[in-house]
Design a protein that fits this description.
Layout lengths: L1 H13 L3 E4 L4 E9 L3 E12 L2 E8 L11 E4 L7 E8 L5 H7 L4 E9 L6 E12 L5 E3 L4 E2 L5 E3 L12 E8 L3 E11 L2 E11 L5 E12 L5 E10 L31 E5 L2 E5 L4 E3 L3 E14 L1 E7 L19 E7 L13 E8 L5 E9 L7 E8 L3 E15 L5 E13 L5 E8 L3 E7 L4 E4 L2 E8 L3 E12 L1
Parallel strand pairs: 1-4, 2-16, 14-23, 21-28
Antiparallel strand pairs: 2-3, 3-13, 4-12, 5-13, 6-12, 7-8, 7-11, 8-9, 9-10, 14-15, 15-20, 16-18, 16-19, 17-18, 21-22, 22-25, 23-24, 26-27, 27-32, 28-31, 29-32, 30-31
Length: 477
């Protein structure tokens, strides 16, 4: 019975006079953007509402608003203020949409006809009914049917369900006849951000200067002028819904180290990190912009040459395992205050540059970095070494069959020749993943046990010279 009474009030609300509000009424705007194409918008506007039942057309909201998340609050006069119904009108006004809405209705066709004396032309107006707009237009005149428009069309009015811009239409009850501050909050797609970093290596490759930027992209179909901007870094869980989306989703900077810029204020928020821009900014429609995130100079960095092995090397006879194996080049640094950093780093791409002999910055590699808390290690693979090479071969192999509770036992011997064409010595680390129960029986260089299934060998290769690692391993698995 209560449900019946509530529904009975809706018709009167639906025919109430409509009040429109646009960006000119906006008093405050706050946008919080998450990593995964999601944003929270809080739009505060001053609107004069009549007392009692009213319809509010809240215009210029995001075209990718999630209407089920919309919440309208009255900040001025919350007493006797309540919302009965809200509708998102996303069918936007275009010439084609207007024509489609008039199927079955009458329009006026205006065309120019030359005067009988050949001087000038006059306008002739005819009424016609729009029969269809599929793959063309079909018009029915009083004495004929035409399949093309013989002039321009004049419509008596714009249909009420066709809007010039995305609009949330809210049926509400106002407790006062006065100007009121209304805050509409909602979640929307089409807004995203990512972190981009620029690192400049020093000439001796022992320190770097790091600049962090936030790259913002607005494809939501709405503008956000002079907004308070906040960013949430972290993986926020979102419930999967089986629903039909109303609107389809729309689908290298300066290499010079930036001068020190104010960092975005950072704070913990639940299990995430919140970054706040210290000034309002405008996110225009279909725009990508960058704002400064952080700046640090003289960050100590470590460089490593790494040759990565494979665990299948140790379970069969393979002989030559590669004429030339790639030696990876890595750099790493600590995200600590003692290293002139110590700020939670949002995930993004770090691009690394180094100056050549003429002082020009050259790109030397890039890598993705995940969300990195304070006091954690940042490790980047920049590429493969040109002047440091490796050749690996298996010098001996034998299967020792089954032994006790273990499966098959294999014994292998290897030789790795490392060459260095540089004019200074380098140190190369070899990470060898070894399966099962393993033991290094003999080695020219003392290994360390990196992990349960990994051995690390460290080999120094002289300038413009070579070094050879030999070792024998027994594995049981």
């Amino acid at each position: 019975m209560r449900a019946t009474l509530l529904l009975a009030t809706l018709p009167s609300l639906l025919v109430a006079q409509e009040t429109e509000t646009t960006l000119k009424d906006q008093k405050a705007l706050a946008v919080t953007i998450y990593n995964d194409n999601l944003a929270l918008v809080k739009d505060t506007r001053e609107v004069r509402l009549p007392k009692g039942e009213a319809r509010l057309a809240f215009q210029e909201v995001s075209a990718q608003i999630r209407p089920e998340t919309a919440l309208l609050r009255n900040l001025t006069h919350p007493k006797d203020f309540w919302v009965a119904e809200q509708n998102f009108d996303f069918d936007l006004l275009t010439p084609q949409k207007l024509l489609e809405k008039y199927v079955g209705e009458k329009v006026t066709v205006v065309r120019s006809v030359p005067n009988a004396d050949g001087a000038g032309a006059k306008e002739v107006r005819e009424e016609a009914t729009v029969l269809a707009t599929n793959n063309g237009t079909v018009l029915q005149f009083a004495d004929r049917i035409e399949t093309s428009v013989p002039g321009r069309l004049v419509y008596p009015k714009v249909p009420g369900n066709l809007r010039a811009r995305p609009t949330l239409v809210i049926s509400l009850n106002s407790g006062a006849d006065r100007a009121q501050q209304l805050e509409l909050s909602y979640l929307t797609g089409g807004l995203s951000w990512r972190a981009d970093y620029v690192a400049n290596l020093a000439a001796d490759e022992k320190t770097l200067d790091l600049s962090g930027w936030v790259t913002l992209t607005n494809q939501s179909g709405a503008a956000y002028p002079h907004a308070t901007l906040q960013l949430v870094a972290g993986d926020v869980n979102r419930a999967r819904e089986r629903r039909m989306d109303n609107v389809a989703f729309l689908s290298a900077g300066a290499v010079k180290a930036a001068p020190p810029a104010p960092k975005m204020a950072e704070e913990s928020l639940f299990e995430y990190h919140l970054y706040t821009l210290d000034r309002p900014t405008t996110l225009a429609v279909n725009q990508t912009k960058q704002v400064a995130l952080l700046s640090a100079s003289g960050v100590p960095v470590r460089k490593e040459y790494l040759l990565q092995g494979q665990n299948y090397y140790y379970s069969g006879s393979y002989g030559d395992l590669g004429e030339k194996q790639k030696v990876g080049v890595f750099v790493e640094f600590d995200n600590k205050e003692s290293s002139r950093l110590g700020m939670p780093l949002p995930k993004g791409i770090i691009r690394v540059y180094k100056r050549d002999s003429e002082g020009r910055a050259q790109f030397v590699g890039e890598d993705n970095v995940d969300h990195t808390p304070k006091n954690e290690l940042v490790r980047l693979k920049l590429g493969e070494a040109f002047d440091v090479t490796a050749k690996r071969k298996q010098t001996d192999y034998k299967s020792l069959g089954r032994q006790g509770k273990f499966g098959y036992v294999h014994e292998s011997a290897f030789e790795v020749v490392l060459k260095n064409a540089k004019k200074e010595p380098v140190t190369v680390s070899l990470l060898e993943p070894m399966p099962g129960d393993w033991e290094v029986l003999q080695s020219s260089h003392i290994p360390t046990k990196e992990a349960a299934g990994t051995a690390r060998f460290t080999v120094t290769v002289p300038a413009e010279g070579s070094a050879t690692l030999t070792y024998r391993v027994r594995v049981k698995w």
